[in-house]
Amino acid sequence: MKVILGAGGQRWDGWTATQQSELDLLAPATFAQFFGEARAEAFLCEHVWEHLTLEEGKRAARLVYEFLEPGGFLRVAVPDGRHPDPAYRALVAVNGPGPAHDHRVLYTLESFVPVFTGAGFAVTPLEYWAVDGTFHSSDWDVKAAPVYRSSALDHRNAAWRDGSGLPGFTSLILDAHRS
Ligand SMILES: C[S@@+](CC[C@H](N)C(=O)[O-])C[C@H]1O[C@@H](n2cnc3c(N)ncnc32)[C@H](O)[C@@H]1O
Asked: Which residues contact 110 (CB under 8 A, 6 or more apart)?
């Protein structure tokens, strides 16, 4: 079973989309009820973790670890606090405008990775802005677990992709593997 957490309107082939009402990252009982003795092969979670406080995010990482089968992975994406565009950073800021009104944390690679290593995961960064202002993207398989707000998929990156413009909307994206 491959499960999207906090899916909102997102749907991807081969993935079961769930909402907070079914699987709440802050309510372990919802996971126990949904999964029973089963475990997920993979979780996908795009732009959800920033809605949790740091402590809630750490608890949620431990919860997801528990409900992944050994060898499974979580692909997780959040706004990137090192994105070079001040307009982007304003849009995703803590207590930001519109849908960001309940953003609790603006992560960077350095603050996000320990949330998952602390829960027992081995972490592979897929996309992020580094402290020196460079963008890093590993050769990751976007189709295996799609993240829309990524360099490859987001419509706001079209000009960047064809070399005619600046980066639009990217994310800090990690794979967190359970051994
Ligand atoms: C900005 S929306 C992102 C929706 C979708 N993942 C996307 O990328 O379009 C934030 C989502 O996080 C979900 N969410 C917030 N807190 C959550 C929690 N504790 N457990 C599960 N989902 C949560 C909300 O219900 C909402 O669907």
From this structure: 131
Q: Output the residue whose Cα is nearest ligand 1's atom 10.
A: 48
pLDDT interval class at 24 (50, 70, 90): very high
Nearest to 61 by CA among 88, 48, 99, 94: 48
The Cα-based distances of 113 to 11, 20, 109, 172, 173 in angstroms read 26, 23, 6, 10, 10
Q: How far apart are CA 13 and CA 146, in angstroms?
A: 10
Distance from Cα 164 to the centre of ligand 1, integer Å: 33
Q: Can you spell out the DSSP letters for 140-153?
A: --TTTS--SSSTTT
Q: Which domains does the chain have, with CATH numbers?
A: 2-177 (3.40.50)
Per residue in 94-136, pLDDT (tens digit) is 999 999 999 999 999 999 999 999 999 999 999 999 999 999 9
Chain segment 133-178, per-residue pLDDT in tens? 999 999 999 999 999 999 999 999 999 999 999 999 999 999 999 9
Which contiguous run of DSSP H or E holds residue 128? strand 122-129
Which atom of ligand 1 lies nearest, measured to the CA of 48? 12
Count of helix runs (H) and strand runs (E) in the chain = 5, 7
